[in-house]
Amino acid sequence: MRHWLGALAFGLGAFGLASIAKADCVIGEPGATRSVAFGPDRRTVQIHVPRGFDPARPAPLVFVLHGSGGTGAAILRDSKLAETADRHGFIVAAPDAGIPVDRGFVWNVPGVPTITGDVPGPDDADDVGFLVETVEELASQGCVDDSRVYATGLSGGGRMTSWLGCVAADRFAAIAPVVGLRAGNPRKGSPERPDAATCRPSRPMPVIAFAGDADTTNPIQGGGAPYWSYTMHAAEQRWAQLNGCATTRPTLWVSASVYEEGYADCRAGAEVVGRITRDGGHSWVADNEAMWAFFAARTRPQN
């Protein structure tokens, strides 16, 4: 009798463990892209699952955020990050921003006007909250490793990526803005400098930023629209301060048309790197392989 009860207890315990085990990820077929709804408002996200994806093994996740007036589907196509994901085994998520405009959407960076000239208000979508919820939902489904979540984005999506670095460092392991690096809002009264009070990440945030020196929309020399104003160098310097970087790296030409600058010897290895394309304009000037190499070397510390 005692032996039977022991066997029954073991069986019930095994059943309980099996019932709470995390199921394999069923977000999509390897090598395919599909539209998935997330969050209480069921907002659209394009999800690309890489070729060779193992549903039983959570993968890294890279968000790619579209530019102002764009869509997730368009930036996934134009960035070619799905092809990079297939080579390296990470999931790509390309969401639509939360504020509709014309035929696309714009991101809610609090306190900063969008391309319409309007500053988002309290009734506008909370894009940070939505992106964090998307991470949590994908992690709970066993699809992504939540210590290896990264963000990149073009233009307005690059500014949103920068904002994630400022306010969601507890969820993202590294960021890679493309023609959109910021380090907080332009300071009121002296917009040529970032407002330190608007970017206070909870931990050092590794940054690799891509830009073109002929960009007239978000010029690396500063100026431009009110949401831009300060230079890319000022943004890099501010991130270096936030990350406690001790060394300014010498300029390095990585190809005939691309040079690299930045800061090293940073706390927790949170380097700040800028890659500038000579004669590059306001477009996806990122080197996807260099971006992924930077991401792949970094994991978010666990609390």
From TrEMBL:
Annotated ranges, domain Peptidase S9 prolyl oligopeptidase catalytic = 131-180
Does the keyword Hydrolase feature in the UniProt annotation? Answer: yes
One MF term in the entry's GO annotations? serine-type peptidase activity
For this protein, the record's InterPro entries field holds:
AB_hydrolase_fold, Peptidase_S9_cat, Plant_Biomass_Hydrol_Est
**GO BP, one example?**
proteolysis
Pfam families registered for this protein in UniProt:
Peptidase_S9
Entry's Gene3D superfamilies?
alpha/beta hydrolase
Query: Signal sequence: where?
Result: 1-23
* Oxidoreductase keyword on record: no
Keywords, ordered alphabetically: Hydrolase, Signal
Which PANTHER family does its entry note? FERULOYL ESTERASE (PTHR43037:SF5), UNNAMED PRODUCT-RELATED (PTHR43037)
Q: Which protein is depicted?
A: Prolyl oligopeptidase family serine peptidase
Source lineage: Bacteria, Pseudomonadati, Pseudomonadota, Alphaproteobacteria, Caulobacterales
